[in-house]
Amino acid sequence: MIAVPPNTKIWIALGRTDMRRGFNGLSLMVQEQMRMDPWSGHGFVFRGRRGDYIKILWADGHGLCLFSKRLEEGLFAWPSLKDGTAPMTSAQFAMLLDGLEWRTVRDARRGRRAG
User: Fold this and answer.
1) Would you place residue 96 in the very low, low, confident or very high pLDDT band (cuts 50, 70, 90)?
2) Per the CB 3.0–4.6 Å rule, which of 19, 30, 78, 114 could disulfide with 48?
3) Where are the domains of the chain?
């Protein structure tokens, strides 16, 4: 599991990404398509066409890190939008890495009544 620093924002790249891209290709994608700075300290998550493989680009203050994960069974849950970006919470990111459905997470405390 990747330990995400407390103030790190996680951004998911919607749509499909060519998973042959490495540091330079994904950094360029962050700059040109997502209109963000790859050196900002935010995490950027990309998913390929098949859906069982993701890459995470993150600048840790010393350099760029590129993490990848492939599921042995199943697919990573991904929004159906074709283009753009979406923010994720650290809890949603942890669920994504575990291969769980993270898009419909709701706060169980909502709707509770005192007493």
Assistant:
1) confident
2) 19
3) 10-97
Instruction: Give Dmax over CA atoms of the chain in angstroms.
Output: 56
Distance set, CA 74 to CA 6, 20, 40, 67, 89 (Å):
29, 21, 32, 19, 22
Of 62, 26, 20, the C-alpha closest to 41 is 62
Q: How confident is the model at residue 54 (pLDDT cuts 50, 70, 90)?
A: very high
pTM of the complete model beyond 0.85: no
DSSP structure string for the chain: -PPPPTT--EEEE-S---TT--HHHHHHHHHHTS-S-TTSS-EEEEE-SSSSEEEEEEE-SSSEEEEEEE-SSS-----S-SSSEEEE-HHHHHHHHTT---TT---TTTT----
Q: How far apart are the first and last CA of the chain?
A: 38
pLDDT for the residue numbered 77 = 85
Contact in structure between 8 and 42 (CB atoms under 8 Å): yes
Cβ atoms of 53 and 70 within 8 Å: the answer is yes
